[in-house]
Specification:
By secondary structure, the protein is mostly beta strands. Helix content is about 0%, strand content about 55%. It contains no helices and 16 strands. The strands form four sheets. Strands 1-2-3-4 form a four-stranded antiparallel sheet, with no helix packed on it.
């Protein structure tokens, strides 16, 4: 790669391996499978995490100013949304395989939340308080269930209404 990346916060790859996205500083970079930079997009805050739909056509990046940004495969901004008014780090993101839904985790010093948006930026699950710090999120193919790796040693399975369906003990510090 010819592009210098100083502080990598997140990385994602399309299902076929032809598209690689990287969250670093105030940018999301998009590379081809040979490491050639295709484009870069400047985020409002520092880019914290990135996810790519299976086909590589939708890229979601979250930043430390509470913004969720949706880009197309050419790096064009489709929309962005400030998901919370308080200072918060929106630091974990996942996208459904078809790019129809995305979930994100948010942390600050006093509370933790998860939320789900559809491909047009409409709320499926408004930021919902949870009782544990968010270390990582994952989403099922259809986006109807999310897994949250907590800052404790537990992993939680939630539905798209925010209801905890199951809890199981993992390994402390393990990301999903």
């Amino acid at each position: 790669m010819g592009t210098y990346l100083s502080s990598i916060r997140g990385v994602a790859i399309s299902y076929d391996g032809k598209c690689i996205a990287v969250a670093s500083d105030r940018y999301v970079y998009f590379f081809d499978e040979n490491g050639g930079e295709l484009w870069r997009y400047t985020t409002i805050g520092n880019a914290e995490d990135v996810a790519v739909s299976a086909d590589g056509e939708r890229i979601v990046v979250v930043d430390d100013k509470s913004y969720v940004n949706i880009l197309d495969e050419k790096g064009n901004l489709l929309w962005d949304k400030k998901v919370h008014e308080d200072y918060i780090i929106t630091s974990h993101v996942a996208i459904s395989s078809n790019g129809e839904r995305m979930c994100f985790g948010m942390n600050n010093l006093y509370w933790y939340k998860v939320g789900i948006l559809d491909k047009d930026g409409n709320w499926i699950l408004k930021p919902t308080s949870i009782d544990y710090g968010v270390r990582e999120v994952a989403m099922t193919k259809d986006g109807k269930f999310i897994a949250v790796a907590s800052q404790t040693e537990y992993i939680y399975l939630l539905n798209d209404k925010g209801k905890t369906l199951d809890t199981f003990k993992g390994i402390k510090g393990l990301s999903a």
